[in-house]
Structures are given as structure tokens and as C-alpha cells.
Amino acid sequence: MNHPNPAIVTQAGARRLPRWALLLLCFAYALPGFLGRDAWKSEDMAALGFMAELVQGTSDWLHPTLIGLPAGNPSVLPYWLGAWAMQLAPHWVHADFVVRIPFVLLLGLAMVATWYGTYYLARNPLAQPVPFAFGGEALPADYARAMADGGLLAFIACLGLAQLAHEATPAQAQLSFSALFFYAMSALPYRKRGPTVAAALGLVGLSLSGAPSLAILFGFGSATLHYLDREVDEVDMARNRRITRESLAIALFTLTSATLALSLGLLRWKIELPQAHWPDWHGYIELLVWFTWPAWPLALWTLWRWRFHLFNRRISRHIALPVWFLLVCTVATLTTGSSDRTLLLALPALAALAAFALPTLKRQVSALIDWFTLLFFSGCAFTIWVVWIAMQTGVPAQPAANVQRLAPGFQASFSFFYFAIAAMATIAWIALVKWRVGRHRAAIWKSLVLPAGGAALGWLLFMTLWMPLLNYAQSYTLLVQRTKAKLTVPGCVETVGLGQGQIAAFQFYGNLHLTPMQTDGNCPWLLVEPLPDMSAPSTVNDMAWTLPELILHPANKGESVLLYKRRIAAVNGDSDLPVQSEPAAEQTSEKK
Fold it and tell me: Is 571 a residue whose pLDDT tops 90?
């Protein structure tokens, strides 16, 4: 039985989004979050620590470590990129800013790859809109460009993309390389050299960024789907032979990337079956709902409307390929520890899948999306402004009190630069709402303009008006300063139980030499992660160390530390402080 194509699009509906508006939206979303802040806890800070040790020569480039300890999720390429940026940058540029430059470019790569991946999927003959009896249907190229605009808007609108995509971490690199491979498999039927190179780079980059298992699944699964995209009746033998060669090449690239990851020790067994407990499954469901919003409802609608077209005479590539990426990431989310960072890799494919719902939406559904988005993001922007005013003036009193309760000791400061950017972004949002309701009602991407614009507005307001508050709460800078003030006698510092983000912060921002605790160590200080009740753990020998002093993180007690002093016998009696001659102490002070 032949089912009608659900995509009905006129040439007027295939108009493309103005390029200047699309580029401005991408820049407004990509740049904030990389500028004007310290490294945040904890993966962002830990990655910076690995990069710094590579530059200092205290770590092996093939096996990056932090004070001799490997990363929980081993990877090499993201740390190389940050270390190379630090080595090439002038000395007067802050290193924690320099390392983010490659990751800004990687986020831009993910956006470009998502646009072109959606574009080539929409060029698929099975994805084309229904031809009209008397003409007037959308031209293939125009239709594909409009769909690509919708796919990129859906990508930007996903709520889970905001923070993780603006960190200099392996997860952000994995996102970019998975998007690059997704583009390669989408464009392979129409281009040869470019997609082939992109496929090889995407698989190798994904493996070296700490996701070799996903690279293997993406590679072999995509090669199989590409092989199935042949003429069943073998009318075009030349095309079938070309598809066979390309499928074998993708499989070979996958094997190469897996071999490279295995040789570097990056391929490890990480599968953990989810527990049959409702709180765990409830957490997974919440993550899937909010992290991928608003793309997942549109993706479900796409699967429903195109359900009869998944397998026809040939496989429907524009549905099958995104579904495979989405299925792999969703299952991996349930079976790995870093669920949100694994789900991040599904967003390019999910955005492309959501775009194919746009030609099938009814006017009532489109209006519902617009009204919900308008109320939600306008309310978020209003709340951000109210809290900012409360931080500056103390009025309203309740938001100001909430800020002091959540971030004790925070002192607000006014920045005209941030204020001007936030004000212009808010005015642009008002203009966008007016533009949406008054013009371009026929464009198929119209339902995703407000979600993408609202997501960019909320993120930009956070990264301008709330940047001092977020930097105060999310960085380790104040914790490091408080700890250094207690180190009255210079020397190395041993650690027990600290996270890699904390270790990297004390080394990078505190210029402290940290080392794991040893039974025969002679460091004068010891930093320990306290128990949940802020008490000292039993792993520390009380005979060797004095009573600890608790140093609190300004906004998160879970990041606090206990500071010990070593008990060392002085020449003329017992003392709680390490022995150090005055000239040595003065020399150290002069160096500081």
C-alpha cells in the first residue's frame, strides 16, 4: 500500500531565514559562556588541569594525568587542543581563556555540521514534499535550505546544550565530532571527497575524545544503513557498487578509530545496567524530557507522521539515520555514568529529526508552540532582570535575600558593558516576537524561531547579568584563596579524596604543588575531602596531623575541604608547625 507523503510545502513556505539573522543568533548563543569567567566546577576545571600539566611537561601526552592520576573518562585530543592553544598564545593572555578558543571553534563546527546534515537529509528524494498537480511546490534546494534552518534552530533551542556546549571539556569535543560524522553520512550520497574526509575525522576525533564505543556503534550502524540505501531491483548497478565501496570505507574508518583508541587505552568497558528502582528511572525520564526540550516532541511527531515511509523501496535515510544516532545515545545514557554528557551527542540528530515535523504541523499546533515559548522565555527573562535589580539595589527584598542565602558573602557589582548587551538582547527578543507574529507566517521554520531565540536570550542574560554571581558560585577561586591564606608555611600539599576539579584549581589558580598522600610523605600540609556531615574521615592518622580546619566553599558545602598541618618535632621541643629556617621563609616570600 502506498501512503501519501506527509510533507506538503509551497514555494512560499520554503523561504530561507535571512543569513544575517541566523549568523547573529549563532554568535549570540556561542560566544557568551566562553568569555569573562574562571573555569567552573568540576569537569571544566579538571580539563584545564590536564591541559596545564601537558604544557608544564609533568604529564605524558599519550596518557594525560593530573598529579599522576588518570582521568575518569580517558581522552587525549581535547587536552591536546587546549595545551596547544596555551603554547601558541602570548604570555599576557590568561591561560584559562586561551584554552577555550579551540572549543568555541568546535561549537561552531557542530552548528555548521547540524545545518548541512539536515540540508542533505532533506535533499533525499523520499523526503521531498508532495508535487502539486499545477506546480507551485517547493523546489528541492529551497526546501532543503529551509529545513536546514529549522534543524539548526531546533539544535540551539535544546535546553541541555547551553552549559555543556560552552565548557572546554571532552564532552564538548565529542559533540562536535559526532555532529561532523552525522553530516558526513547525510551528505555521502551527494558528495564524495568532503563527506569521506569528514567521516574519517569525525570517527577518529570521537574516539580520541573519550567516546570510542559510541564511534564504533555510530560507524558500523551508519555503514549498514548506507549499504541498505541501494536500489532493490538493481536498476542502477553503478550506484549500488559505489554505495558498497563507501560502506566498506566507513567500516574501515571505524576499525581504524577503534584500533587507535585501543592502542592508547581509551577503549574500556563502561556498561552498567540501570537499576530497577523508580527513583533512578524517574531521573532518566526527567533528563530526557528537559535536556532535549523542545526537540523531542517534534521528533516524536516526525516518527508518527513518517512511520509508513521508514522502509519503502529503499530505506528512508532522512528518518533512519537520525533515529540510529538517537537510539545509540539514549541507550548509552541509561548504561553510562555521565548520562547528560552522553545524551549531548544525540542533539544534532535529534534536531534534524525534529525539523522534519515542521512541514506536517497544523496551524493550531504551531500557534500553541509559539504561545508556550513566548510565555516561558519571557517569564525567564523577566525573572533574570528582577533578580539582577535586586542584587544591585536590594529591592525587591526577597530575591536579594535568596541570593545571599544561596551565595553568602557575594557582593554585586555593576558592569555597563554587560548591562548594555543584556538590554540589547532583550530589545531584540521583543522585536523578534513582533516579527514572528507579523511576518513570514508561511515559512516552515517559523515554529522554531521563538524557541531558538528564547534559548539564546536566556543564556545570554545568564552570562551577562548573572555572570558575577555564577562565577562566584561555580568557580573554585574563593575556595583557593581562603585555603592559601591558611598556608602560613610554604611547602607541598598532600591530598586525600579531592575531586580532580579541586586538585586542578589548587594547582592552577593557587600555584600549589599537590601530590597524593603517602605513608612516608613529608609535605607540611594535607587537604582532605570531609564527610557529608563536614567531619574528618578516619583515613587520616591523627598522630601525624593536627586537628583539621574546615574551609568552606562560598556556595557549595559539598566542595569544601579540610586542611591539616603535619606534626613534626622541632629541635628544642615539640611543635605543631613544620620546622623551616627564617632565611628560607624570607626567600620564598620574596619569590611570591
Answer: no
